[in-house]
Amino acid sequence: MPHFIIDCSEDILKLHSQDEIIEQVNLSAVSTKLFHKNDIKVRVNVFEKYSTGNKKENFIHVFANIMEGRNMEQKANLSKTIVKDLASLLPSVAHIGTNVIEFEKASYFNKNMLDPNYQFSMP
Question: Which domain holds residue 81?
Fold first, then answer.
């Protein structure tokens, strides 16, 4: 936790590699001081077929899935930081966006939580 899922047009990868984009999102997330570096997970979905307002223009959008508990200012700063940093990395890309989706602590579960000694904590 958290999970950052990046959707992007395939031509984005002509500008920068998936590894570079993943690293930038990771660095952006770490810079907000909301997450532990080792907890951040980042994935990329590349699209060959898509539409951006009835056109086919490059895009990149990051879905930030985080555990509930951060305030609106923290979530807005996370979104702004990711967009600002991606805009610096990809200045020719007009369509760059991020949104934050919160997991509910009560309904979230993963394999580590099967251990009876597991203690859920947030930074």
Answer: 3-114
